[in-house]
Design brief:
The chain is mainly alpha-helical. It contains 2 helices and no strands.
């Protein structure tokens, strides 16, 4: 009878990608960067001014704050 051999699985090295730099654009220079910063500014504006409309429900607060935001000087679209 021939001797039987068994293969043992050798563990593969874990590839976590740590320290590996991806090719492409540097972080923060994507085409949606302006949109993201505008959204952050809008959210901050809403948070600061929500107390003006605390007598309204959330949905109505959002509507009123949106109207104010469109004409606000903090809105990047209104800054020439």
């Amino acid at each position: 009878m021939a001797p039987t051999t068994t293969k043992t699985a050798t563990p593969k090295a874990a590839t976590t990608g740590a320290g590996v730099k991806k090719a492409g654009r540097p972080k923060g220079t994507g085409k949606n960067t302006k949109a993201k910063t505008a959204m952050i500014k809008m959210q901050a504006y809403f948070k600061e001014n929500r107390s003006k409309f605390k007598h309204l429900g959330f949905k109505d607060q959002q509507k009123e704050l949106g109207k104010e935001w469109k004409t606000s000087s903090e809105n990047p679209k209104n800054q020439a």
